[in-house]
Design brief:
15 helices
């Protein structure tokens, strides 16, 4: 009987993560639709290819080193462990030639768990993609995608999203559904890149006043965001461990009962996170509609930002808290977006820094206030959740692992003249693909104008 139950548990867990991967794939359909809807027609294919090709690039690099980083660095920035942690013995199994990287009948879980985390990596890279549309070279973006998808995000997941991560142990960091671990780091990286990349031509008037570059197709933006909402269900579910025995978490909380847990191995239920997901979506949509005075783009984006803000603590919040926190996050991110745009002339084409970065940052901070004193982990000796621990964690996610690496890599690419599309190509459209094609098109335009004189 024990063998039968064990087999059913393994099969259930395998299917559980497999279905999350299929659901999360909708996030990337949504990102492609959303970005094409937000870009102008002359840039559509460039926008699509830029975002699509991150999938194979991040997949390959995640296989070769991203997944290993997650298992090797929970103790801190040094491979020797740091914070008293030795090098995890399990890390060697996640090298490309490791035993957990090869499909085996006696290990049905590693592959689908790897795939779920891979989809998180795609999401982090795709968030940056939308912010930089219509002016970045594809090669430059792909280098940035590899950096965040397979290096910096892997590090922040090891530090703050591993059940034995040093941020969890020392800071009491709690971020159950990745307000900071994915969204704040991606928003911070996007901001660092945008500061170096500069605004799209025509975004700011001569006196510095920002101009609104309206989405090319509002329907695609709407459908794309609803696809992202749908894929977010898979995202949430993949952040859980579906069945964990008491022995797996030392029996410190739940005795001998099997239960669903968060990524930190603290008990939760799909019922609880379903209610809180919908309540935070509702709060975000309502405040997004109100603060933007009914603007469709910011209403739909507000729904996403509401979920992101509440995600850090949606395993523990009361539904009314999830609703209010989602709404607060949307108000803050909306106001910050336009203040940063005016003050620093940052052109975030789809509001990605705001929706993911600012909302994620505030979501981590708010969780520290609302959940103050709650255990961060079932393991003895780990710090409890505190406002200062969460604030330090938000700084690490947005600024240390997000903004700084994004800014540095963008400066390197800029110095090599590999970051931004030439002005002539940007004027005519990135789908022309090369300076030669752009020049031929420009000559055709001039010839046509002269023929009409």
């Amino acid at each position: 009987m024990d063998t039968d139950i064990g087999a059913l548990t393994i099969v259930f867990t395998e299917f559980y993560y497999w279905i999350t991967v299929a659901l999360m794939f909708l996030i990337h359909i949504g990102f492609c639709m959303y970005e094409v809807g937000a870009s102008r027609q002359k840039n559509h294919m460039h926008t699509l290819m830029k975002n699509t090709m991150l999938i194979p690039l991040v997949t390959i690099t995640w296989f070769f080193f991203g997944w290993w980083i997650y298992w090797a660095f929970p103790g801190g920035p040094f491979i020797t462990g740091g914070w008293g942690h030795p090098i995890p013995e399990t890390a060697a199994a996640y090298l490309p030639w490791g035993e957990s990287m090869v499909p085996r009948l006696d290990d049905r879980i590693s592959g689908v768990f790897w795939a779920a985390f891979l989809l998180f990596s795609w999401t982090a890279a795709s968030i940056v993609s939308g912010a930089v549309i219509e002016r970045i070279r594809k090669f430059a973006f792909w280098m940035i995608a590899i950096m965040i998808g397979s290096v910096t995000w892997s590090i922040d997941a090891a530090w703050g999203w591993h059940y034995n991560g040093w941020m969890v142990e020392v800071l009491g960091y709690h971020d159950a559904y990745a307000s900071g671990v994915i969204h704040a780091i991606a928003g911070g990286c996007a901001l660092g890149v945008l500061i170096v990349l500069g605004p799209r031509l025509g975004k700011f008037a001569a006196d510095g006043t920002p101009r609104d570059i309206a989405p090319h197709n509002a329907w695609l933006v709407c459908i794309g965001l609803f696809m992202i909402y749908t894929g977010f269900w898979g995202f949430y579910v993949a952040c859980n461990v579906p069945l964990a025995t008491a022995g797996f978490i030392d029996g410190q909380i739940i005795g001998d009962v099997q239960t669903a847990t968060t990524i930190y191995l603290t008990p939760t239920t799909l019922s609880a996170i379903t209610v809180n997901f919908l309540m935070s979506l509702a709060g975000g949509l309502m405040v997004g509609y109100t603060v933007s005075k009914g603007d469709a783009f910011w209403t739909y984006s507000g729904g996403l930002a509401g979920i992101i803000t509440a995600s850090a603590g949606n395993d523990l919040y009361h539904p009314i808290q999830a609703f209010l926190i989602g709404g607060i996050g949307v108000y803050l991110m909306y106001k910050m977006h336009f203040w940063v745009e005016r003050r620093f002339k940052v052109d975030d084409a789809v509001g990605a820094v705001a929706v993911h970065g600012y909302a994620g940052f505030w979501g981590v901070v708010i969780a520290g206030i609302v959940l103050w004193g709650h255990p961060s982990s079932p393991y003895e000796g780990f710090a409890v959740i505190t406002p200062w621990g969460q604030f330090i964690g938000a700084i690490i996610m947005f600024w240390v692992l997000g903004f700084i690496p994004g800014w540095i890599l963008a400066k390197i690419l800029q110095g090599a003249n590999l970051l931004r599309i030439p002005r002539e190509v940007e004027l005519l459209g990135l789908d022309f693909g090369s300076m030669q094609e752009a020049e031929r098109a420009r000559q055709e335009v001039l010839n046509a104008e002269q023929a009409t004189i």
